[in-house]
Amino acid sequence: AAFADMQLYVNTKMRTPTEIVDEVNRNAENLASASEQVSATAQALAQAASEQAAGVEETSSSLEQMTASSAQNT
């Protein structure tokens, strides 16, 4: 009886090579999807950083102009 129980357990728990390959394929697809999301997020962050840098540069230029104008008026 113990052997039969063990045999039943092994037979029900063992996965076929096809099932293993299917799971590997699903995991690969999930990884590819996650990689695409990370890439899109990185691109969005790079764009936002570029826009922020442009804004800082514009603000700096405006401050320089105000400083120069203020110096001329004194």
UniProtKB/TrEMBL annotation:
The keyword NAD does not apply. It comes from the Bacteria. Residues 51-74 are annotated as: Disordered. GO terms for biological process: chemotaxis. InterPro entries: MCP_chemotaxis. Keywords: Chemotaxis. Belongs to the methyl-accepting chemotaxis (MCP) protein family. PANTHER family: METHYL-ACCEPTING CHEMOTAXIS PROTEIN 3 (PTHR43531:SF11), PROTEIN ICFG (PTHR43531). This is Methyl-accepting chemotaxis protein. It comes from Xanthomonas vasicola.
